Amino acid sequence: MGLTSFAVDELGDVVFVELPEVGAKYEQGESICTVESVKASSAVYAPVGGEVIEVNSSVKESPEKLNKDPFGESWLVKLKVANHDHLKSLLSASDYEGLVEQSKH
Amino acid sequence: MRKAATHLSKSALRSLASQHVTFNLSVLSSGFAASRRGYADEASLKKTPLYDYHVENGGKMVPFAGWSMPLQYKDSIMDSTTNCRENGSLFDVSHMCGLSLKGKDSIAFLEKLVVGDITALAPGTGSLSVFTNEKGGIIDDTVITKVKDHHIYLVVNAGCRDKDLAHIESHLKPFQASGKDVKWHIHDERSLLALQGPLAPTVLQHFVKEDLSKMYFSDFKMIDINGYPCFLTRTGYTGEDGFEISVPAENALDLTKAIMEKGEGKIRLTGLGARDSLRLEAGLCLYGNDLEQHITPIEAGLAWTISKRRRAEGGFLGADVIQKQIQDGPARRRVGLIASGAPPRGHCEILDLSEKVIGEVTSGGFSPCLKKNIAMGYVSSGNHKNGTKLKVSVRGRISDAVITKMPFVPSKYHKPAEGA
Fold first, then answer.
1. Start and end of every Aminomethyltransferase C-terminal domain (chain B) (predicted)?
2. Is CATH 3.40.630.30 correct for B10-94+189-281?
3. Quick check: ipTM above 0.90?
């Protein structure tokens, strides 16, 4: 899981990322990590419940990478999904794009 | 269910100018709340003469103190901040409130309300001062300029405008009623611009006849700039050399365009986001964060604004409290911090090495120029010396911090050569 390009653009230059511990378990909707820009810190919530199996430490060392490639290199956390039903409640990429467009008006 | 990402644009950006805000970035699904458009809010915000110009130039507008102001433009806050120090910035600060006091009793009047030694202030110069309340706390900080003996010009914060004007008026009326000679005028017919950075003097020189190299930090002139009758002060809120220009509101846009054209792309329009980073790097206080009604100028490290005469004589509101603090030392003091880990923000606790709470952060963030976390806050006296190792608690995680002398970035004010 990570951030969308819309989200990083809104945040601005990322200066700090706090990642969870490997092995920690989170409920859907629980704050799992934090991303900070010059002016704001933002909690990132687990989109589905699960257990952290890997974190992307390269993002911790170079937080600015998130601004360049949020969908690729700069993923944040890998979660082992606890309940596959949660996946049904997520937006598709096109649904999300629609939401973003609405919010701009 | 959690709120979806639609909330984050306007409402999240709202506070970013001066404070840290936590907002939701995740994308969850069903049951998202419809985002609040806040049309009524936006329609009631005041606009400066440069509003359309900001929008045309990519300004991201946010509400600030009842005005719609640019938080940033197309460049990031980081780039905007470093550009100010490398080249220069033009800020629209027309939301701030300028006022004049005129009359032979204007100095006597003002000295009842501020700690500054306005009597001793040389004509054509200004200084930082504070308005105090009965407990010696700070109502607002202000730059006060003596234009001439019977004319004082002041600039106060936008967020404190209503409070300050009501406070001044409540004291002015009885003072006038007792037969004293002082009148006030609020300069709503003027707009304030700030031109800051190493290129500021060269660019501004194109528009004035007088030799600006002889105008030093804190000097004031009434002067034509590009033919417009302006109030010019060599001062600012960035630590860089620069000027604040009070121009008639109807000329503000033309002057801005003229300056930007002569700036040849190096002077950039700069918003409140970078303005906040710059002032923090310069160790300058922000009212509402580092200065507040319950904080005295002594606690805030602003004792230098109170001359020997005013310390002895008092005569301003709360003088007794302030005099006692000067004598005994204040219980807490403002300090600068450099911290590791996540950037400390306002309200984060400051701890000693045994993790006992000894204070609180009042402003903090990542410094674009130093590439470190910097912060200002208050600690109990005894813990305030430069070099003191402390800790800060940021969202439950504790990291190391050290008290650091401010300004964090050295200032570059234009002062006469030593011995001159």
1. 332-409
2. no
3. no
